[in-house]
UniProtKB/TrEMBL annotation:
Pfam families: Peripla_BP_6. GO terms for biological process: amino acid transport. InterPro entries: BCAA_transport, Leu-bd, Peripla_BP_I. This is ABC transporter permease. Residues 1-20 form the signal peptide. Residues 21-360 form the Leucine-binding protein domain.
């Protein structure tokens, strides 16, 4: 072989990958106030990829590479990291982030690069609502699913409810959806209270709620929508809302946050996940593997990350590869896929995953240092009329 030909062959080999590779970017808040959520999400994503590929971490012979990017919970950084993942790292699909505010900043990047972003676990309705684009899918539940499930669990004729939420997209979207869902139950929303995300002193907010609710007759509840630290439930409970006839209520949360629930046995609400509730093969595998590997049960966002991992694999298989975004979108619209919660369905209209939720009551159980959310009933996909928001 002459020298010119040899150099040409060498250049061709250098430019040609040895094997096709599926590149998935996990763009999430590894550092910051929600890093516990992020860690669970990443563990779940990796377990989901493992489960769906039967441990091979390959799809139709192509190996999966997962690229991690840290948003630091900052919208501008999340936007830059997603662009870097698509542009520099050539990720075909991205998963994340944790924060709704970060997610909203990232949505246009997916549209610009014409590549898929599977949102998990950011919750704000607007992600698959008014701010959505055709390249966005979400395995995580949205605010309406949280709200409608909690309205089903808490509402009823003669019930009056106040809300306390964080003053950003997650909190405000959550309250708006809850208020809308509550109307169908016959309950009344009497007061809305919003506080900064880093609030630790809830005295003033609680006093305003007590003042608004104190003279109202009948059953009264304070529904708290919260993410992260601060423990508003425990701190407001210490102020004895029962003297005004007010019961505290909230949705589910991670295991660490459930320690505050121990102070409130009998409290009701609706949850996205608790490891002892779902009864299916995927959840059985998740619980067993997580206990074996980490010595603890899987948590709230571990289940969500696993659902995203399974959805990625199912979509790529159905589309015949990861390189064609249009084929992936066609495959995913209306796609049913297994998850630790049972079957999920990507709704074609807005790409939101429809999924069951769980009405629970808190119990104190021996050997557990938190209030245990015990199943009252499963709130199925058909039990919730989740609006398509434009």
């Amino acid at each position: 072989m002459n020298r010119t030909l040899a150099l040409g062959v060498a250049a061709l080999l250098a430019a040609t990958p040895l094997a096709a590779e599926i590149r998935i970017a996990h763009v999430y808040g590894k550092t910051g106030a929600l890093e516990a959520y992020a860690a669970q999400s990443h563990i779940g994503l990796m377990l989901g990829l493992e489960y769906a590929t039967d441990g091979t971490m390959e799809i139709d012979g192509e190996p999966i590479t997962v690229i991690e990017k840290d948003t630091q919970l900052k919208p501008d950084i999340g936007k830059a990291m997603l662009a870097e993942a698509y542009g520099d790292d050539d990720a075909q699909i991205a998963v994340g982030p944790v924060s709704s505010g970060v997610a909203l900043a990232m949505l246009p990047v997916a549209e610009e690069y014409e590549r898929l972003l599977i949102v998990e676990p950011a919750v704000a309705d607007s992600i698959t609502g008014e701010n959505r684009n055709r390249f966005i899918f979400r395995t995580g539940r949205n605010s309406s699913q949280d709200a409608i499930a909690n309205a089903v669990a808490l509402g009823g004729e003669g019930v009056t409810i106040a809300t306390l939420a964080q003053d950003y997209a997650f909190g405000r979207d959550g309250v708006a959806a809850f208020k809308e869902a509550l109307e169908a139950t016959g309950a009344t929303l009497a007061h809305e209270e919003y506080v900064p995300t880093d609030t630790t002193d809830f005295t003033a907010a609680a006093e305003r709620i007590f003042q608004a609710m104190g003279d109202i007759e009948g059953e009264k509840k304070l529904f708290i929508i919260w993410a992260g630290g601060g423990n508003p439930m425990g701190k407001i409970n210490a102020m004895d809302p029962s003297r005004f006839g007010i019961e505290i209520a909230t949705g589910g949360n991670i295991l660490a946050a459930l320690t505050a629930y121990k102070e409130l046995p009998g409290m009701e609400g609706a949850t996205y996940y608790y490891y002892e509730i779902p009864d299916n093969e995927v959840n059985d595998w998740l619980v067993e593997q997580h206990m074996d590997r980490y010595g603890t049960p899987p948590d709230f966002f571990t289940a969500g990350g696993m659902a995203a991992g399974i959805a990625v694999v199912e979509a790529i298989r159905k589309a015949g590869g990861a390189d064609d975004a249009e084929a992936l979108i066609e495959a995913m619209e209306g796609m049913e896929f297994p998850s630790p919660k049972g079957t999920m369905i990507f709704r074609a209209e807005d790409h939101q995953a429809l999924q069951p939720m769980y009405h629970f009551v808190t119990e104190i159980q021996d050997g557990k240092d938190y209030g245990v959310p015990v199943l009252v009933r499963e709130i199925g996909i058909d039990d919730m009329d989740i609006p398509v928001r434009d």
